[in-house]
Design a protein that fits this description.
Layout: H1 10-24, H2 27-34, E1 51-54, E2 69-72, H3 74-80, H4 85-101
Antiparallel strand pairs: 1-2
């Protein structure tokens, strides 16, 4: 799963991305996006615009499971990239602090 360099192996990534494609076609995923809310910023977003985000990113060893996949707006998903949950929270906290300072 994790290669010698500390990242996920290509085999792991390929397998998990296929599982993600299948999960996006499931009724479970349709129910998750039906509310039209981003898991991270809680913005109301049309269901068709929500993306599937791995809370623990695949490249960091995450898996495509219902417990690790959440709907995210494209903005949050793009900014989160490969951050772990604790790193993402630190990023959001720093953004809030910089907004408060202005």
């Amino acid at each position: 799963m994790i290669d010698d360099w500390g990242g996920a192996s290509e085999e792991h990534l390929k397998k998990e991305r296929q599982k993600a494609r299948e999960l996006r076609r499931s009724q479970w995923w349709r129910n998750r996006i039906a509310a039209g809310e981003c898991y991270y910023c809680h913005a109301k977003v049309p269901a068709a615009e929500l993306t599937l985000d791995h809370v623990v990113p695949l490249v960091r060893g995450g898996r495509t499971t219902k417990g690790n996949c959440v709907p995210a707006c494209k903005t949050c998903n793009s900014h989160k990239k490969d951050l772990l949950p604790v790193e993402w929270k630190d990023y959001l906290r720093r953004l809030q602090e910089s907004d408060d300072a202005e």
